Amino acid sequence: MRLLKQASHGTVEIGRGLGFTDYSRRDRRYIRNLALREGYRIGYTLAENFTREDAAEIELFSASGD
To answer: Is the pTM value of this prediction over 0.70?
Structure first.
C-alpha cells in the first residue's frame, strides 16, 4: 500500500498496526472480527478550519496481485 497523492486540505498517514476486521455476519470470515489482526491503518487529519470535501489517492495490491 502506498500513498500516490496527498490530500489537498489535510494529511493522510499510512502505517502498519493492529485493528479489527469488519466482515458481515453472513460472511464465513466473520469470526475473524473477534480478534486483533495486523494490517494497514489509514489516518486522515484535516487542516484547521477546513470543512469541505477532500480526497487522497491510495494504491493497494492484494497478495494475489489484484
So the answer is: no
Res. 66 pLDDT band, cuts 50 70 90 = low
Set of cell numbers at residue 59:
494504491
Residue of 6, 4, 9, 34 lying closest to 20 (CA atoms): 34
Whether residue 65 is predicted with pLDDT greater than 70 in this model: the reply is no
Spatial distance between the Cα atoms of 21 and 29, rounded to a whole number of angstroms: 9
Q: Is 47 left (phi over 0), alpha (psi -120 to 50) or beta?
A: beta
C-alpha cell at 57: 489517492
21 alpha carbon, distance to own chain's centre: 11
Sequence ranges of the domains in the chain? 2-50
